[in-house]
């Protein structure tokens, strides 16, 4: 089973690296930069995703404790806030072209709308 999960991780990383290195029609940056950002994206996601998953799991447990006291809407807001947001760090996020949201918005509003409302 460990061999299968290692193989799946290897295949996933290889596909991500190849996709990041694929030259686009309007690519102004060099291929080596694209590869570097792709590798950085995969590496950062491999560190970020387990932390995000742990936070999501903690939010799900907290949501369960919230349910009897705050009702289903409050529990849903807690769970969607903890599990929402960015799950993968993309090359565009590393370049600063798109934001990384560790927590997501509630069920009714995504975090980008909530951030825009604060401005």
Task: Give a short synopsis of this structure.
The chain has 119 residues and is an all-alpha fold. The protein has four helices and no strands.
Bin the strand percentage: under 5%
- Return the average pLDDT rounded to an integer: 78
Q: Major beta sheet, specifics?
A: none
Unreliable runs, pLDDT <50, ≥5 residues? 106-119
Number of discrete helical segments = 4
| Beta-strand segment tally | 0
Distance between the termini: 49 Å
Secondary-structure element order, as H and E? HHHH
Radius of gyration: 18 Å
Which term fits the overall shape? elongated
Structural class: mainly alpha
User: What's the helical proportion of residues?
Assistant: over 70%
SSE blueprint:
Blueprint: H1 2-21, H2 31-83, H3 91-94, H4 111-118
Helix pairs in contact: 1-2
Key phrases:
elongated, 71% helix, 119 residues, disordered C terminus, mainly alpha
Write a structural description.
The chain is mainly α. The chain has a domain at about 40-119. Helices cover about 70% and strands about 0% of the residues. It is built from four helices and no strands. About 15% of the residues are buried. Mean pLDDT is about 80; it is low at about 105-119.
